[in-house]
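Researcher: Re-running this chain for the archive, since the previous output was lost when a drive failed. Same request as before.
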Amino acid sequence: MRRIVVGDIHGCYREFTALLKKVNYRKGVDRLILLGDLMDRGPYSWEMLHWAIRWKEEYPDSFFLIRGNHEQMLVEQSPALDTRMIWRVVGKTATVRSFRKHRDRMKRYIPWILDHMPIYHVDEDFRCVHAGLEHEDFEENSMELMVKDHSWSRKNLYSGKITIIGHTPLPMPVYYDGSGGPGLDLAYHEWRELPSSGAICIDTGCVFGDKLTAMVLEKGKYYLEYVDSGVHTVNKAHFYVGKIKKISSFPIIRRFCSGANSR
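Model: Regenerated structure tokens:
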């Protein structure tokens, strides 16, 4: 069975469906795994979530998805001002707009997310988690690390069983071998042996105007495919320079700007 793993989608529903066509995804035959962050920032969060709900109902044994930090923000629904402002900065407004077009509310989907988007996924020869790991045993890692943290993957210190991650947008997919050195950029369209350890990040920033990436795995090997971002995307420079400057007087936002919080 082919396994197809897709990185952070962030409401880029059109790019997602185009990517499935490009890898010749066969519904109910191939195993499809989404790494979380289906919503926020992009224009089609409602459409993306409803696609996932329908697919999980129709193909429960071959479609899996894990929870990202943006789904976790919806689940937590913190009343704290700093948390609400962070969520607004990282794309909540686009999601609210998407749901309002359909006269729908995000809160209604919290039970579905809790029931169908676990924190990690275990496959035969690899595992998936949204943000990163410190220890091979999932139970030894905190929720913060597995769902929200950016720093651990960049440190390149995880050397447990090979794990596919997203969360941190990069220009190219990167393999982290756990050595503490820089990661290795991975080329597209080349079959490679799947490493037995370390982590591979496949978030390539589609919603920022870059690419949406899929990792196709079969018989101990894998290759990477992508589609370019469409026109309905967040402008990266505007997102970081425009919106954050307006509220950068808040200490929690300054920590966010420095990379310590959620993307």
